């Protein structure tokens, strides 16, 4: 049943359709949250896909298509919305072209390679290797995002500490003297001198 072109075609259609819906519905979600959620969904989808092919279980393959669609829509939308603000208006067309070029290469090349090796190693082995490669790539993405998050949080904490240290010290003049001290006015000095005399 899994070897049917109709089943594989419908599964791909469902994955892309769910991805489109996910990207549309999650437009208000920050891109920084979309990327890790999408990456985790891709890992789960790869595991379901490999398990479904190995067990010849069609429900697992459909579940993989649904979860993978969520991951596809979340990661693509998060990537575009996180990179677009960093590019100027004149360079955004080239940025979008590069993103979609990489995406289509990532879709097309594995399919071509899998088709060429299908007769030699079989569909189960191809599915296992394909799923493992997707899970590894998504795992690397998750690790990179976590490292960036930790680094940004550490930088924010350092900035806050630096600001609190500056607020806790009195201001100094250009000569290096402390202007935050309690200085006396000339009138108070004159009154002190009269009292002394």
Would you mind describing this structure in some detail?
The chain is mostly helical. The protein has one domain. It is 81% helix and 0% strand. It is built from 6 helices and no strands. Helix 1 packs parallel to helix 3, helix 2 packs antiparallel against helix 3 (58-83) and helix 4 (92-121) packs antiparallel against helix 5. It starts with a helix and ends with a helix. 20% of the residues are buried. The model is unreliable at 170-183 (pLDDT under 50).
Which key terms come to mind for this protein?
single chain, 197 residues, 6 helices, elongated
Write the SSE topology.
Blueprint: H1 5-25, H2 31-55, H3 58-83, H4 92-121, H5 123-168, H6 186-196
- Whole-number total of structural domains: 1
DSSP summary, beta strand count = 0
State the helicity in percent bands: over 70%
SSE string, helices as H and strands as E: HHHHHH
> Any idea what the shape is?
elongated
Q: What fraction strand? A: under 5%
Radius of gyration, CA atoms, in whole angstroms: 30 Å
Q: Residue ranges: pLDDT <50 for 5 or more in a row? A: 170-183
Largest sheet: none
Structural class: mainly alpha
């Amino acid at each position: 049943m899994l070897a049917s072109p109709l089943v594989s075609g419908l599964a791909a259609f469902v994955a892309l359709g769910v991805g489109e819906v996910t990207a549309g519905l999650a437009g208000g979600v920050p891109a920084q949250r979309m990327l890790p959620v999408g990456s985790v969904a891709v890992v789960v989808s790869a595991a379901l896909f490999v398990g479904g092919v190995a067990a010849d279980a069609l429900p697992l393959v459909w579940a993989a298509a649904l979860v993978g669609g969520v991951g596809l829509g979340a990661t693509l939308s998060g990537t575009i919305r996180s990179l677009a603000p960093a590019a100027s208006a004149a360079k955004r067309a080239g940025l979008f072209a590069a993103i979609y070029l990489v995406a289509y290469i990532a879709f097309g090349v594995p399919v071509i390679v899998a088709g060429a090796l299908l007769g030699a190693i079989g569909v189960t082995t191809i599915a296992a290797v394909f799923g493992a490669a997707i899970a590894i790539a998504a795992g690397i993405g998750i690790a990179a995002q976590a490292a960036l998050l930790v680094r940004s949080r550490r930088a924010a904490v350092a900035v806050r500490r630096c600001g609190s240290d500056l607020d806790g010290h009195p201001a100094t003049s250009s000569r290096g003297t402390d202007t935050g001290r309690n200085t006396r006015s000339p009138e108070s000095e004159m009154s002190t001198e009269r009292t002394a005399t």
